[in-house]
Structure formats: C-alpha cells, structure tokens
Design a protein that fits this description.
Blueprint (H helix, E strand, L loop, with lengths): L9 H9 L5 H19 L2 E4 L1 H16 L11 E5 L26 H8 L3 E6 L33 H8 L5 E6 L5 H7 L2 E4 L19 E6 L2 H11 L33 E4 L10 H16 L3 E4 L5 H26 L9 H7 L4 H24 L2 E5 L13 E3 L2 E3 L11 H6 L3 E8 L5 E7 L5 H15 L36 H18 L9 E3 L6 E3 L3
Parallel strand pairs: 2-3, 2-4, 7-8, 7-9
Antiparallel strand pairs: 1-3, 4-6, 5-6, 5-12, 9-13, 10-11, 12-13, 14-15
C-alpha cells in the first residue's frame, strides 16, 4: 500500500494545511480512501461518515482559504469511539440495545474538536458498553489489530486504536475505566493518554463507571496526543466531576534536540504487580525502555507500592457496581439483548451489596495516601502498559510462563487499572516489537494535573527511539491478503470476568481494611493529590 497523506501526523499536516500546501479536501479524501482499503480487514468502525466528512472538509477549505485558520486541528480528520454522543448520528455504545439511538447533541469533547475545525469521519467499534479489554463485539463483529488482524486490538477503545494505527483517521477519542485507552494504544503501536480524573469532560459519553471513567485521545505521536488534549481538556459545567484547573498548551512545552532532556528527573519502577507474570518479551522491551530513560538523564529508582494486586480486584468491584446502576432497568427487561461478554458481569454485580461498595470506596480514599507518599520520592512512574502482546481473537487460553491461562483474567493483560483507581495521568507510548512483530507499550504515570511532565518524558523517549515511525502495520503492506474472515461465531466463550468471585473480593476487602487501618491515616475524602515540585508537599485538589 503506497505512502499517503493519511500516514502523516498532526504535527506534519498542520503547517501544510495552514500554508494551503495541502487542502482539507485532499487530506480527507486520503483518509477515506485508507478507510475503504482497510475496513474489510479491520472492522474499526461501526458508522462511517464519508459524505458528512467531505462536506465538512469543503467548509474547512473555504475557511482556511479565506484567512480563517483556527489552529493545528483545523482540517484534520478524526474518529471517536462509539460511546461519544454525536448530534444527528447514531451512537450505539457497541450494543444491540442502542443500535438505533441518535443523540440530539454532541459530547462536549466532540463539540470542542468541531469548533477547532477537526473533521469527523466515523464512529469506532468498541467492546459492548466499553465493558472489556479485547473489543470482541458480538453485535458488530470484533475490531482487529492492524499488526495482525487475527489478533485483538485491545479494548475497550480497540476500534479507535486500530483506525489510528492504520491511518483511517489521524487521531481518535477513546475512554479509559481500567486501561481502555492505554491498553489498545500499546497493542496497536500508537500513543494513548489518560489525563487526570476531571481534566476532560465526559458529558455526552456513555458511562461505564462514573468514579473511574476518563475520556482522552489516541494518536500517532506524543506531540499529536498533547495537541488534542489541549483542545478537549478544561472545565465543563455540565460534568459534575470536571475540574477548573488551568489547561496549558501541552504541545508547545515539548522540546527536541536537548541531549539529556530528563536530567534531574526521578523516575520510579515497581516490580510488584506491574512486572509480575509478564510475557518475557514485554518485560525485556519495557526494561530496555526504562534504561533509555536513564540514558536521557533520569534517575531510576525501584519503589514499592503495597497491596496493588488487591486494589486491582477492588477496582473491579467498584466498576461492576457502578455499571449496574446504568444498566439495571435494561438488564431486567431486555437481558436477551446483552452479549455474553457483558451479561454475566451485570448479573454478578447484582450480588454486590451497598455495604461492600461503600467499603471499597472508603478503602480507595485511604489508599490515596499511598500514592501521595510515593510521589514525594519520585516524579514519574514507568511500568508496562500491558502484561502480554495482542492475543488471537476468540482464544480461550494462551501459554504464558509455562502455564495455560485465560488472557482475559485480571492480572494477565492489564497493568493500567491503578491509574484509574488513583485518577493520576498516565500515557502509553510504543517501546518496541516482539519477534512476531507485535507492538509493546511503555506506561508513564505522573501526578494529578501535571500532564505536561508526563508528556515531556514520553516525548523524550519517543524522540530517542522513534518506534512509532519505524515499522508499518501488516495490514498496510502490499502483500497482505484481502478481507479477514468474520469471527462473530468464535466469541461465545470469551467472557470478560468481573472478578474471581464476590466472596473472594469480600475477603480482599477485609484484608485490606486491616492493613490500611494499621498503616495509613484515613483520608477525609477521595481527592487526587498534587505535589509541589519545590517542596514535595502533597495537597488535595477538589474535583
């Protein structure tokens, strides 16, 4: 497949559009041509908007020609996960229940992108109601990984990651409740950013778990991701969790050409949970990436974060309980319309008592003190984005470290849930490829509302390695075969587990409660913390 304008980044395209060297019409045509070439293999979209996109491209062209250039996203084609409301365009949430739902307004983030002149080309495939990490969708078919279309792209924002990697959109928006931006970004070899809880509005986005949900961008480079976040971030009075913390120009702060750009920065890594039970190739590539951070001037420190594995199980209980509140009426009246990926989770969530849910949130409040203390000693945390590379669609087991395991079990694929549990910003950036040519991601986490520092480290690493530009996904290679077979029938056994069992989670709660009572003073409320860089004093920020 020949090189196209669609393969370019926002950073490359914006000056060409501003100078009128490239027109929005020309660029949109290239993106739509790539969509046509790849969709039979990837199924990254639920709804395609070719006619609407071309009309918007012609309008953007008129505006730019007449001196009305709006900024770096003007004339840039983008997609959104099909959880985002789009006025007059169906928004399915990847479900049968909302297959024909048409909102009468745009999500705040979509409206902000349109105001910036970006051009919506389609709505991306997603795991049903964002409730899993594989994007094996029983109603619309699975989204596929551009590096190997027989494998998952990750989820739940799998269609978003796949379309960006294949250049059938220049960037996309996803959501992240337990890693659903960062995991597919890692598995598809692109960049995905989950900003601080409250940084990006979720108004007009189907919820999964309101106290864990984040909205954010997926793009081809760190600079692109930073540019999109600068546009979509900021207070929204229609989102109760939205923060009024000032939003900087993230992309403007990224500098290239400094020999040791991370000089003086303290970056931690934690063996417990993050590096346990990893695929050997993932472990090797991530540790090589951390060594590069050291070469760039960072001081690398091993840190200990207690009770991480137990907290991930607590996270799953919170997510399930909050999910049920949105779905309870439909579970009662339309249970047959839910897929086998989600219905068992909803039915099990009915067993979670109010007491159990409140106890998990109380423990979550207390556990914030662990993270606050950690960031007195370090500036950033560098860990894997996933525990394994992309696995085959429909696979019930994979072989990992001498054992056959269910790749959907807690602790197998994901290493991202702590960033939702604490609400801290974290990014996934490509850090290499396995021997089979599958991408692997490095995850970098920072303190609340300091996404700039996270971007700085990720950008420095990216510029030192340029993984994002070194290889071409298999689906874009000239000798790649045609349309992939449909595998909707393969997925009957592919149920994403809620957790090991309600009883086991209650045992974990009891254990955590006693440990936290002994080690940590109870927090007064769940508020993300920020660290004063000069004094290392930790303060609360109200959301």
């Amino acid at each position: 497949m020949s090189k196209s304008l669609a393969d370019s980044t926002i950073q490359e395209l914006a000056p060409l559009l501003q100078s009128k060297t490239v027109s929005p019409v020309e660029l949109t045509e290239a993106v739509l041509a790539r969509m046509e070439e790849t969709e039979g293999r990837l199924n990254a979209y639920i709804t395609r908007l070719e006619d609407e996109a071309m009309a918007d491209a012609r309008e953007a062209e008129r505006e730019i020609v007449n001196g009305g250039y709006k900024g770096p996203l003007h004339g840039i084609p983008f997609a959104v996960k099909d959880l985002y409301y789009t006025k007059g365009i169906r928004t399915t949430a990847g479900s049968k229940i909302y297959r024909d739902f048409v909102p009468d307004y745009d999500a705040t983030t979509v409206a902000r992108l349109k105001d910036a002149g970006a051009i919506l080309v389609g709505k991306n495939n997603t795991h049903e109601f964002a409730s899993g990490g594989t994007n094996e969708n029983e109603h619309f078919g699975p989204a596929r990984n551009p590096w190997n279309p027989d494998r998952i792209p990750g989820g739940s924002s799998g269609g978003s990651a796949a379309c960006v990697a294949a250049s059938s959109a220049i960037f996309s928006l996803g959501t992240d409740t337990g890693g659903s931006i960062r995991m597919p970004a890692s598995l598809c070899g692109i960049v995905g950013m989950k900003a601080t809880y409250g940084r990006v509005s979720r108004r007009g986005v189907f919820p999964l778990s309101w106290s864990l949900d984040h909205a954010g961008p997926l793009a081809k480079s760190v600079w692109d991701t930073a540019q999109v976040l600068s546009v979509i971030a900021g207070q929204d009075p229609l989102d109760a969790a939205s923060s009024d913390h000032p939003v900087p120009d993230y992309a403007a702060a990224l500098n290239s050409g400094v020999s040791r750009p991370l000089e003086g920065m303290k970056i931690g890594y934690c063996e417990a949970y993050f590096f346990q039970n990893l695929d050997p190739e993932v472990e090797r590539l991530v540790k090589q990436a951390i060594a590069v951070l050291a070469d760039l001037g960072a001081e690398i420190r091993e840190v200990k974060i207690p009770m991480l594995e137990q907290m991930v199980q607590v996270h799953s209980l919170i997510s399930a309980a909050e999910m049920l509140t949105f779905h309870n009426a439909n579970v009662t009246s339309r249970s047959e319309d839910y897929g086998t990926n989600i219905l068992p989770r909803l039915l099990m969530a009915k067993e979670i008592s109010a007491q159990a849910y409140l106890e998990t949130q109380r423990l979550r409040q207390q556990y914030q003190a662990v993270w606050s203390e950690l960031y007195r000693e370090i500036d950033l945390l560098a860990v894997p984005s996933t525990g394994i590379p992309a696995f085959p669609i429909g696979a019930e087991t994979i072989h990992l470290n001498g054992k056959d395991v269910n790749p959907r079990d807690i602790g197998i694929i994901g290493r991202t849930a702590p960033g939702n549990f604490n609400g801290y910003p974290s990014i996934s950036v490509p850090c290499g490829y396995t021997d089979a040519g599958l991408p692997v991601g490095l995850q970098i986490q920072g303190v609340p509302f300091d996404e700039s520092l996270v971007f700085q480290a990720a950008h420095a690493y990216e510029q030192a390695t340029l993984w994002f530009s070194k290889q071409v996904p298999a689906v874009l290679q000239d000798d790649f075969p045609g349309k992939s077979p449909d595998t909707r029938q393969e997925m009957g056994a592919s149920v994403s587990p809620v957790h090991k069992s309600i009883d086991s989670i209650m045992d974990v709660l009891t254990e955590l409660s006693s440990q936290l009572a002994a080690e940590i003073e109870p927090a007064s409320c769940f508020k993300p913390k920020t660290v004063n860089k000069e004094t290392k004093q930790v303060t609360s920020i109200s959301l």
